[in-house]
Amino acid sequence: MDSTLPGATSAASAARRRRRLTHRIRDGLRDLSVQLALLNHQIGMQLDLRDADLECLDLIGRYGPIGPTALAKRAGMHPATLTGVLDRLERGNWVIRTPNPTDRRAVLVQVVKERAAEVTYLLSGLNTAVDGICAEYDDDELVLIADFLLRTARAGRIATDELADT
C-alpha cells in the first residue's frame, strides 16, 4: 500500500500508537513488579520472614491446605528448598502441617489464621489504595482489567515454566 495515501498514513499512525500503548503496559507491569517486590521485602523484614517464605505463605493462604509437592510446583522451588521454607514457617508458627485425610502417607500445609492477620494488616495500605483506584472504574472496565491481569499472570506462569524446563 502506498504510504502517501490517507488510509496508509492512518494505519501506520494507529500501529505506532498501538506499539506505544503496549510498551506503556509492559513498562507498567515491570514497575508494578518492582514495587510489589519492594513491598513484600518490607513486609518480610517487619515479620522476620525471607522473601521466599512470604511468597510461600501467600501461596499456602490462597491455595491451601496444600501438599508440599503441589506447593513446590506453584512456588517454582525444588522440594528440598521448600522443606527449609516450611520448617522456618512452622517454627515461626505461620503454618501447620496436618495429615492428609485422603492419603495417610502425605501431609497438608495450612496457614495459622491468627498469624495471617498480621500480613493482612501490613497490606492494608495497599488494599485501601487499590480499592480507591477500582472505585474510579465502572464494572465493565473492572471486568476487563481483571481479565487482563489473570491472562498476564497466566502468561508469566507459562514463561516461568518454559525457563524452568530449559
UniProtKB/TrEMBL annotation:
Keyword tags: DNA-binding
Domain of life assignment: Bacteria
Keyword field contains Plastid: no
Molecular functions per Gene Ontology: DNA binding; DNA-binding transcription factor activity
Domain HTH marR-type: 18-154
Name by which UniProt lists this protein: DNA-binding transcriptional regulator, MarR family
An annotated GO BP: response to stress
Lineage: Bacteria, Bacillati, Actinomycetota, Actinomycetes, Kitasatosporales
Pfam family, one: MarR
Presence of the UniProt keyword Signal in the record: no
